Amino acid sequence: MKMEMTSLLGLSLYTLNGTYVGRIKDVVIDSSEGAITSLAVVDVNESLFDVRGKGVYLPYRWITAVDDVALMVHPVRVSRREEETEEEEADFRAAVR
């Protein structure tokens, strides 16, 4: 899927069955590959994700289509890892500012 990375920013993200997931705030790029590896998603649907911070990172491989909205495979409910550190949470907050 080729596109301008900036075209993803601000898009609403939905599952294939139409469930709202959140809004794409930023992209994470593997500089050695020049490819998007994950998306920073905010305004997250709490029925899908157990989050305490501002959002979640989702693997870009979950994205199946991008147009006026982005579509992704339907995730099972995702819970926050117990071992998730405050540093990881701070990194996310810094990325989505």
From TrEMBL:
Signal peptide: none
Transmembrane parts of this sequence: none
Stretches assigned to the PRC-barrel domain: 5-70
Top-rank taxon: Archaea
SUPFAM superfamilies cross-referenced by the UniProt entry: PRC-barrel domain
The protein, known as: Photosystem reaction center subunit H
Species of provenance: Methermicoccus shengliensis
Lineage of producing organism: Archaea, Methanobacteriati, Methanobacteriota, Stenosarchaea group, Methanomicrobia
